[in-house]
Design a protein that fits this description.
- The protein is mainly beta.
- A hairpin with a 6-residue loop joins strand 3 and strand 4.
- The protein is elongated and about 85 Å long.
- The strands form four sheets. Strands 1, 2, 3, 4, 5 and 6 form a six-stranded antiparallel beta sheet that branches.
- The N and C termini lie far apart (71 Å).
- The protein is built from two helices and 15 strands.
Length: 235
């Protein structure tokens, strides 16, 4: 998706080549800042460089408009400056950016598939130019697990996270049924894998019945439907 246009600062003044270069850099920085905000990056910093072209930037008798051409990759951004009017022109610019931010990294080695806990991760400043799915929200990682083993210092990536499996097939589980202030816990056996809030089949090891249950925590489920018996009123 292309970035929105930006107007050169300074109304009713001619745009010199130097001013246009500065505006292109400012426009690129604005775009990077907006991308960082959408990604939820904490304390982002940008190091921008305008790639020199063999084509000289012309002047423009009025303010120019700068728009994004392709701003998806910070390491190679393309923007265009446009001078309107009878003798108007359009020229593209290439910029290279390095982006750093305080993002989630593994504080310790974490095996694949194990639910992440707070002690597993920390925030650290890293170069994320080539890691667009880095993020900074600790809550996003809560209850998730990584598809691959994380080593201490690895950046935690959104694309590698999946909902943690809290109940596994053949595992002993607790079936907790609640009705008002009454809570009943019985032993069960999971017949399917399940992450939090997933519906799985569970066998009640007491009477052998199989029920549908919702995963509520580690090796813990609750019946999908709780039947509450009430005393019959006399006729």
């Amino acid at each position: 998706m292309l970035a929105a246009p930006w107007l050169l600062a300074g109304v009713a003044r001619a745009a010199t080549p130097e001013a246009i270069d500065k505006q292109v850099l400012a426009a690129a920085r604005t775009e990077l800042q907006e991308q960082a905000e959408r990604s939820g990056l904490a304390e982002p910093l940008f190091d921008l460089m305008l790639v020199k072209s063999t084509r000289a930037t012309p002047s423009c008798p009025q303010p120019v408009v700068v728009e994004g051409v392709d701003t998806r990759h910070p390491s190679r951004m393309r923007l265009a400056a446009m001078c309107t009017g009878a003798d108007g022109w359009r020229q593209e610019f290439v910029l290279r950016a390095n982006v750093s931010a305080r993002v989630l990294v593994a504080a310790v080695d974490v095996p694949a598939g194990r639910p992440l806990v707070q002690a597993d991760v920390t925030l650290d400043r890293r170069d994320v130019t080539a890691t667009p799915d880095a993020f900074s929200d600790l809550q996003t990682a809560a209850g998730m697990s990584s598809r691959r083993t994380l080593h201490a210092g690895d950046i935690v990536r959104r694309s590698s996270l999946v909902a943690a499996i809290l109940v596994r097939r053949g595992q002993a589980v607790r079936i907790i049924a609640k009705s008002g202030a009454v809570e009943v816990t019985v032993a069960g056996e999971a017949l399917e894998d399940g992450s939090r809030d997933a519906m799985v089949r569970v066998r009640n090891t007491g009477n052998g019945s199989v029920i549908r249950a919702r995963v509520t925590g580690d090796a813990t489920v609750e019946p999908a439907e709780v039947v509450v018996s009430t005393p019959h009123s006399p006729d």
